[in-house]
Specification:
mainly beta; five-stranded antiparallel beta sheet; 10 strands; globular
């Protein structure tokens, strides 16, 4: 069983519910991933709020489009963009459905190997630290002002 967040109606955060759901075995070309973190993006809210359409046949709607975690099982021929995917691989999942969950089964093509710390600036994840866009506001790094 996996814990999963779904929208049971269209609206604000009050329409989100936590449910238990059986996790199927991965089929051919699929992987099962234990989710360690999930991305939160404006598109998530736009989908469950109904801003992108409010077709009731889409309910209950799984929430979340990206996650990161560890592969727990693979189906036959599970190959991601970087090659074969194996149990134990740490991966980043992008453009999936239902990332707000403890376990997901997705197409292996959505699983990209997580880069090792040696390939990430400073040995830590740098997305959002503004290092690639210059200094943080208020940090002049020797410049006057």
């Amino acid at each position: 069983m996996a814990i999963k967040v779904v929208a049971v109606a269209f609206g604000g955060p009050e329409v989100l519910a936590v449910v238990d759901e059986a996790v199927p075995d991965p089929g051919p070309g699929q992987v099962s991933v234990e989710v360690r973190s999930a991305g939160t993006n404006p598109i998530d809210y736009k989908q469950f709020s109904g801003q992108l359409g409010a077709d009731p046949s889409r309910l209950p709607m799984p929430v979340g489009l990206e996650a990161a975690g560890v592969v727990t099982a693979v189906g036959a021929g599970a190959t991601g963009p970087g090659g074969p995917v194996r149990p134990g691989d740490e991966v980043i999942l992008y453009r999936i459905s239902g990332a707000y969950a403890s376990q997901v089964v997705v197409a292996a093509s959505a699983a990209v190997a997580k880069p090792p710390p040696s390939l990430v600036r400073g040995g830590r994840r740098s997305h959002g630290d503004r290092g690639h866009r210059g200094p943080r506001p208020g940090c002049h790094r020797g410049r006057p002002g």
